[in-house]
Amino acid sequence: MPRSYGRNERVAAAILRELAEILQRELKDPRVRDATVTEVRVSEDLRNATVYISFLTDNQDEIKQAMEGLKKAKGFIRSTLAGRLNLRYMPDLVLKHDTLITDSMKLDALIRKGLHKD
Q1: pTM for this predicted structure
Q2: Mean of the per-residue pLDDT values of the chain
């Protein structure tokens, strides 16, 4: 039997899709140009959306500045999303840095180093 997706999962997918486009095309802050939305989780009551964002760099200063830029633009992002999504209530956005990609790259490097060690 196919899995049915709840409303919060459909809203999360819509937010991810639209937010990725907003970051790529509409946000003019140069600090966030390398930001990628990796996941969005929306609470059951649709009041909060946790947005996980990764970056192409592992420089902590650049990531910190980019997250600050995103937090300053949160009002613009939320209002733009509200205009695009047909929702009764726009969830509050909680922006978090997603370290999964950089952590997996570090782990992969350690595994490769261990495999090639003689």
Answers
A1: 0.81
A2: 88
Radius of gyration of the chain measured on its C-alpha atoms: 17
18 close to 87: Cβ distance less than 8 angstroms: no
Distance of CA 60 to the CA centre of its chain: 17
Question: Dihedrals φ, ψ of 96, to 5°?
Answer: -130, 145
User: For residues 95 and 66, is the Cβ–Cβ distance under 8 A?
Assistant: no
Cβ atoms of residues 100 and 53 within 8 Å: no
* Percentage of residues in the chain having pLDDT higher than 70: 94
Give the pairing of strands 35-42 and 92-97.
unpaired
- Which residues, at least 6 apart from 113, have a Cβ–Cβ distance to it below 8 Å? none
Element at 9 (helix H, strand E) = helix 7-21
